[in-house]
């Protein structure tokens, strides 16, 4: 049956038509990546709001999370989708591999006795890399598919559905969580009240699977351009050395100067390192992609400034399973104070 969605496969293979079809596919991949980043952002916002609500001393932080600008969120989504569309697949693959190496190094150091706030910071900093991982995975999985555009449209529909659900969850939590958790008649709010502490682990597992597929796709996409083993070695050897030095430098800088300003500096160092590396082993289009990736990193950091400040809070309330509900009565001044699990450190 003829369908407008399969029009590129029925018409003659003209160069202009192939270019237009490739641009449409890249746009669909960018939209899917932007929707995935939005899903992660909405879930983190809901998680932080529940944690601030469970602690009476976090009223100012709670009000900052409650302020929403729907137009700004739409502009942020559209801008990120445009950036992911313009970035070449090779550059997106390099960004995914660099972040994965940095994340593994950070997680190995966290196992030696670090707090859970570093994991939350890692989730915030991975947003642009997550979008690149999704675009790389879609480019690899849909390469050579007979109905690639239709498949990408179906994937975009699923991504938009997930984004809409998490956006409604965030809006519902910000407006009604305090009332519903105290009255105990909303299943969503009661579920967050009882199991919000497990949301970071769930996000971590989902991100691990996403980046595992993205890394596999990135390696295959990069290796397909090499005809011989010597060409691949000339590319991977300096790339591995550059990534290793970047990881060592960034870990030292983050230990000295923790904060958003340090993350901005590390973004500049990372992109400058990749830019210099690709001057010798890359292509001129890769250099344009690196500059676009720098814009994408700053674009994602701009939307996580408030959440990044919350990660600096020591002993975040909802990190502990003993977080109390807001409906529990406070002890009277005459009664002896009982030890509470959510007392700020």
From TrEMBL:
UniProt keywords, alphabetically: Membrane, Transmembrane, Transmembrane helix
- Specify where the region named Disordered lies, as residue ranges: 318-345
Q: Does the keyword Metal-binding apply?
A: no
InterPro entries to which the protein is assigned, alphabetical: TMEM82 (IPR031648)
Q: Which domain of life is it from?
A: Eukaryota
Membrane-crossing ranges are 26-48, 69-87, 202-221, 233-250, 262-281
* Keyword flag Nucleotide-binding: no
Q: Where is the composition biased (Low complexity)?
A: 318-327
Name of a matching Pfam family: TMEM82
Protein name per UniProt: Transmembrane protein 82
């Amino acid at each position: 049956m003829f369908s407008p969605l399969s029009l590129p496969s029925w018409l003659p293979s003209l160069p202009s038509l192939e270019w237009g079809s490739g641009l449409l596919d890249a746009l669909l991949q960018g939209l899917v990546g932007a929707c995935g980043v939005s899903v992660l952002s909405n879930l983190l916002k809901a998680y932080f709001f529940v944690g601030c609500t469970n602690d009476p001393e976090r009223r100012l932080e709670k009000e900052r999370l409650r302020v929403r600008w729907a137009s700004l969120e739409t502009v942020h989504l559209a801008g990120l989708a445009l950036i992911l569309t313009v970035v070449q697949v090779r550059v997106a693959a390099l960004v995914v591999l660099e972040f994965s190496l940095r994340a593994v190094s950070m997680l190995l150091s966290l196992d030696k006795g670090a707090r859970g706030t570093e994991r939350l910071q890692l989730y915030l900093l991975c947003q642009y890399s997550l979008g690149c991982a999704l675009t790389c995975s879609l480019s690899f999985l849909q390469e050579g598919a007979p109905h690639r555009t239709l498949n990408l449209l179906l994937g975009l529909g699923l991504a938009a559905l997930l984004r809409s659900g998490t956006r409604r969850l965030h809006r519902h939590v910000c407006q009604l969580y305090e009332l519903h958790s105290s009255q105990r008649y909303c299943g969503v709010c009661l579920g967050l009240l009882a199991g919000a502490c497990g949301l970071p682990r769930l996000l971590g597992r989902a991100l691990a699977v996403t980046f595992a597929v993205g890394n596999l796709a990135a390696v295959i996409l990069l290796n397909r351009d090499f005809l011989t083993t010597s060409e691949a070695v000339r590319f991977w050897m300096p790339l591995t050395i550059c990534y290793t030095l970047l990881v060592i430098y960034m870990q030292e800088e983050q230990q000295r100067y923790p904060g958003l300003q340090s993350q901005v500096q590390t973004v500049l160092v990372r992109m400058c390192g990749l830019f210099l590396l690709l001057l010798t082993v890359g292509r001129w289009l890769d250099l344009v992609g690196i500059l676009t990736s720098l814009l994408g990193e700053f674009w994602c950091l701009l939307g996580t400034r408030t959440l990044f400040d919350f990660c600096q809070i020591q002993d975040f309330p909802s990190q502990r399973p003993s977080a109390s509900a807001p409906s529990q009565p406070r002890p009277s001044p005459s009664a002896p104070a009982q030890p509470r699990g959510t007392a700020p450190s």
